[in-house]
Write a structure and sequence with these properties.
This protein is α/β, with parallel strands linked by helices. It contains 13 helices and 12 strands.
């Protein structure tokens, strides 16, 4: 990349999140961008690029530029690759900065699926479908949870992964959430309480499944050269990767056994000139406990098929040997798609995570997962400029 144009995240904006009913997704998005720009010590007039992403509730699109009063933008686009989108937005913003196409780009995700008086499950519940998806619904596979449950069961049957091992992931992340004032669930969780939570779709208990949250998060990406004069410590983008296996709803030999992380992770680390042994903090997309397990395997933190034993062997939680999902993740903290792991990664890299701050945070690995293991993005972030991590 051209000297001085290496990309860095310089602003982070986070609205109130959770059961917040007084704003639309578009309003959350606008608030998040304003907060991120102010966090960087910039003004909206400094922004010449905007990338937006909407959740299941929709409502966030190109019109956000008008709502914010942005004019003469060099980059403007709506993006959608589900939970991998946040990582991809940072990747495309980084490319735009490196090429000189744009100088300061805001990337934002917001959603407001929760409705007062309606269950959280209804926000991501079964939807009508035709064709093959209709056949799936008629057979009892009515939602995303059912598909992930099939993937998890395949892994269990193949490698002997157990319910207890999935439970260790939920327990470990809840321990981190207890130190995160933004987390929706902060009470301590035991393995016995995990098993006592009701079934959703076997092998998933309620506590295997992520939260549902309203809110918005944005980041601002600019050049490292400019970052040095701004308000917050820059978080440098050292590497990135994507993978889109293209096997959604297809029967194939790797379903539930290998995800796009197996390509995306090594590509990002290779771009950064690093390996998994260099990683200090891991912020993973955790729509389900199983997603954490398979991503750890596919990134190479443990051999394939040994993820269950790996997470149950003192690996997770604040006292664990690997610092994973240090804010509590989507299972216990808040669910803003790929912005959940990204926002915590920025806080850790800056050294601004408070009680839960990890002492060694020179290299932070961030994942995003979309669909049913259909899309994957990876970022390698650092508080140090390339060559110093």
């Amino acid at each position: 990349m051209p000297r001085g144009r290496t990309p860095a995240i310089v602003g982070l904006g986070m609205t109130e999140m959770g059961k917040v009913y007084d704003r639309t997704a578009a309003e959350f998005a606008a608030d998040a961008v304003r907060l991120a720009v102010a966090d960087a010590g910039l003004s909206l007039e400094d922004v010449d690029g905007l990338l937006t992403s909407a959740g299941v509730g929709g409502g966030v699109g190109l019109g956000l530029a008008r709502d914010l009063g942005l004019r003469d933008l060099a980059v403007l686009s709506e993006m959608q690759s589900y939970g991998s989108t946040a990582g991809q937005m940072v990747q495309y913003a980084s490319l735009a900065v490196a090429s000189g196409m744009a100088g300061t780009i805001a990337c934002v995700f917001a959603d407001a699926p929760l409705r007062q008086g309606t269950s959280t499950g209804a926000a991501y519940g079964s939807r009508g479908a035709v064709g093959w998806r209709g056949v799936l619904g008629a057979s009892g596979i009515a939602d995303t949870t059912s598909m992930y449950a099939l993937a998890a069961r395949r892994h269990m049957d193949t490698y002997g992964t157990t319910q207890d091992q999935l439970g260790h992931i939920a327990v470990g992340q809840r321990a981190w959430a207890g130190m995160n004032p933004r987390a929706q669930f902060r009470d301590p969780l035991t393995l016995e309480q995990y098993h006592a939570s009701r079934w959703i779709t076997e092998p998933f208990h309620l506590l295997d499944c992520c939260l549902v949250s309203n809110g918005g998060i944005a980041v601002v990406v600019t050049s490292a050269e400019r970052a040095g004069s701004l308000a917050r410590p820059p978080v440098h983008v050292h590497g990135w990767g994507q993978a889109h296996p293209g096997r959604s709803l297809l029967r194939h030999e790797n379903f539930g056994l290998v995800s796009g992380a197996a390509r995306s992770g090594p590509a990002a680390l290779a771009m950064a000139g690093l390996s998994v042994s260099d990683v200090d903090v891991v912020e993973l997309y955790d729509c389900y406990t199983f997603t954490v397990l398979i991503t750890l395997e596919d990134y190479g933190f443990c051999p394939k098929g040994e993820g269950g034993r790996f997470v149950a062997d003192g690996t997770l939680g604040p006292d664990g040997k690997l610092k994973v999902n240090t804010g509590g993740g989507q299972l216990s903290s808040y669910y803003l798609w790929g912005m959940t792991p990204l926002s915590e990664a920025v806080l850790q890299a800056r050294g601004e995570a408070g009680e839960r701050q990890v002492a060694d945070h020179d290299v932070v690995l961030v994942s995003g997962n979309g669909g049913v293991l259909d899309h994957h993005s990876t970022l390698v972030l650092s508080p140090h400029a390339p060559g110093r991590a």
